[in-house]
Amino acid sequence: MEIRALTPDYAVSPQIDPSDLPALKAAGYTTIIDNRPDGEIPTPLQAEAMKAAAEALGLTFVINPVLPGAMTAENVAVQEQAVAGATGPVFTYCASGNRSAIVWMLMNAGKLPVDEMIANTARFGYNHAPLRGLIEAAAEQG
């Protein structure tokens, strides 16, 4: 498991395993958001199995599947609500962490400078410069 903290309160990661959840709880994360659709992964890693394991540890678990290349306004709204309602830091994951990072950028469109967000995610190897127009458009829609 690789925790890629975009902020002190929001991290992204590639796919995790139920065995990673105790370490996430120990690291202070209180909410886990699954941005990976079940169709991409084997049954032991699917949302309901992960949710049961997380909730057994007292963690909040949010299922918010983001389809590759088909992120919706609803995905952003669900993520934003989960983050707003979290009682501590939020840990998000998908296949590589990329979709979780893009959702974060869209949640923060108009709140944080686009250049700052692109540079932030670039620290972890994500090239979001081509998304500048999308993020700026989201900021304008506010």
Features:
142 residues; alpha/beta; Protein-Tyrosine Phosphatase, Chain A; five-stranded mixed sheet; 6 helices; Prot-tyrosine_phosphatase-like; TIGR01244 family phosphatase; BLH_phosphatase-like
Would you kindly provide a written description of the structure presented here, covering whatever features stand out?
This is TIGR01244 family phosphatase. GO terms for molecular function: hydrolase activity. Residues 3-110 form the Beta-lactamase hydrolase-like protein phosphatase-like domain. This protein is of the alpha/beta class and 142 residues long. It has helices at residues 21-26, 47-56, 73-85, 98-107, 114-122, 132-141, and strands at 4-7, 10-13, 31-34, 60-63, 90-93. Strands 1-2-5-3-4 form a 5-stranded mixed β-sheet, with helices on both faces. Strand 1 and strand 2 form a beta hairpin. The longest helix is centred in the middle third of the chain and has 13 residues, at 73-85. The radius of gyration is 14 Å and the shape is globular. The mean pLDDT is 95.
